[in-house]
Structures are given as C-alpha cells and as structure tokens.
Specification:
It is a single chain. With about 260 residues, this protein is an alpha+beta fold. The protein has ten helices and nine strands. The strands form three sheets. The protein has a four-stranded mixed β-sheet. Strands 1-3-2 form a three-stranded antiparallel β-sheet, with helices on one face. A two-stranded antiparallel sheet has the order 8-9. Helix 6 packs across helix 8. It is elongated, with a radius of gyration of 19 Å. The protein starts with about 35 loop residues before the first helix and ends with a helix. About 35% of the residues are buried.
Length: about 260
C-alpha cells in the first residue's frame, strides 16, 4: 500500500457523499460529529419516503401482488417497508430481476436483494445489516465500512465474535475476527452494533487484502473514512499501541506514522 499524506486530498469516487448519513452541525461537516456520543444518536429518518418510492416503482413495473396457487404475496406497502426482498415477497424471480434492472433493488444473490433507497442513509444501511449478520455479533472491517460509507456491498460479512460460522449468507461467507473490542471501540446504529469509525479504519489497514491486488479499494475506503469522520493517524496509533499483538500491527503502524509526517 502506498498511502502518502496527499492521499487524503484525493477525489472520493468510491461512495457518494449522499450515501453517508446525516450532514450539518451533528453530521460529517460539523465539529460535533466526531465521537461515539454523537454517532450513537442515529435513528430512523427517511423510511416513509422509501415506502412511497418503492411502491410507485413496483406499480410502474406492473408487479401487482396477487395470491396464486396458495401462495400469498406481500402488499406493495409491506414490500416497500422491508429492507431485504426475496422471490417469496414478489410474484417471482423475474420481478426481482426487473427491480434490479430498474435500480430499485441491489441484488445480493439470484433470489434476494436490498432496496436501494434503504441504503441511501446510515440508518437504512444498519437496518439492512441487522437482517444479515449473526445475532450478538459486531459488524467490523469491510462490512462496517459499508455501513459508514455506503457503496457496493462487500463480498464478505465481517463480524467480531468468538463463534465460528460456516453458513453462507446471500452467497457471502461470514468472516470472523476474534479481537479485543472494548466498549469505546463499539457503537450501536439502529439495531446494528458496529465498530466506531476510528476502529474501523484500524481494522481496514490490518486486513490481508491491503497487500493484495484489491488493496487499492481498501486504500480508498481508509481515505474516505478518515476524511468523512475526521479520524486522525494519532487516533489509530493509540488503538494499535493498546493492541500490539494484533496481526500486521507493525505494517499498520508504519502507514499511520507516515501520515503524521
């Protein structure tokens, strides 16, 4: 990874600012945004607009839930209010594909996907994750970055847990990190427990992907997280100093020390 200080001023095309949650005095542009006390205040804001928009799209596509062959479909309002949809919620897999082509649904696999409007806000993304991640786990690493930034859904579901999961979730494996996670590293957004932005940045830099071909993608996530949530290299160095036995800590320290210069 080649992260220099001027990387922090690079253009941010990985995720649109409109996908990253609230702005203003308590959002990313205001000084009160930084810190768990303010991050923990996120809650439902735009769900009513989501229901109306998705219902209109379903109607335009001619998808009218009609019970057939003993199978009962959800009404448009029920469908719109649900973060994740599958072919059981709609007249069939072709309906899901049509919604995906129309941009209303972002498919996770051949039979399910999440509503794009739900992923436009921080709370909406937390609602999507609350239905995906195992119970009593903490979202971390790439999945936590998706919650904080938006963008494309990652290829793994990353969680902190002492358990091991072999189940595949929507064509994605559950990648478990058994790392020390004190309360100050964690926060709850809606019903989802997630690592704070500073801890998420540390977890991203510690990923093995950083040294692989897709390291540039993780690099951009780190840059976006540090800019959007005002995470400083010193914040990350403090976390690493308190956890010297985490894998790849030496390499991560070198990166953040290079940014302080």
């Amino acid at each position: 990874m080649n992260m220099q200080t001027n990387t922090l001023t690079a253009s941010r095309n990985w995720a649109s600012p409109t996908n990253r949650g609230p702005t203003g005095p308590s959002g990313p542009t205001g000084p009160a945004h930084r810190g768990p006390a303010n991050l923990g205040s996120y809650g439902p804001t735009d769900r009513d607009a989501t229901i109306e928009t998705t219902s209109e799209t379903l109607a335009k596509l001619g998808i009218t839930p009609t019970p057939t062959a003993g199978r009962r479909y959800m009404t448009c309002a029920q469908t719109a209010a649900k973060p994740l949809l599958n072919d059981r919620d709609l007249p069939g897999p072709l309906s899901l594909r049509a919604l995906s082509d129309f941009g209303t649904v972002s498919q996770l696999d051949a039979v399910s996907g999440y509503q794009t409007t739900h992923a436009d806000t921080l709370y909406g993304r937390s609602t999507i994750l609350s239905t995906l991640v195992p119970h009593n786990t903490t979202v971390c690493a790439l999945t936590a970055a998706w919650l904080w930034l938006g963008g494309l859904f990652p290829n793994t579901v990353d969680v902190i847990s002492r358990s091991h999961y072999r189940t595949i979730v929507h064509d994605r494996s559950i990648r478990v990190f058994n790392r020390r996670s004190p309360p100050e590293h964690l926060i709850r957004v809606g019903d989802t427990r997630v690592t704070t932005p500073a801890r998420t940045v540390c977890d991203l830099v510690l990923l093995p992907e950083l040294a692989e071909d897709n390291g540039d993608t993780v690099d951009r996530m780190v840059t976006d997280m540090m800019q959007e949530y005002r995470v400083t290299p010193d914040d990350c160095l403090t976390i690493l100093d308190r956890n010297p036995f985490w894998p790849r800590v030496a390499a991560a320290r070198s990166i953040f020390e290079g940014l302080t210069g």
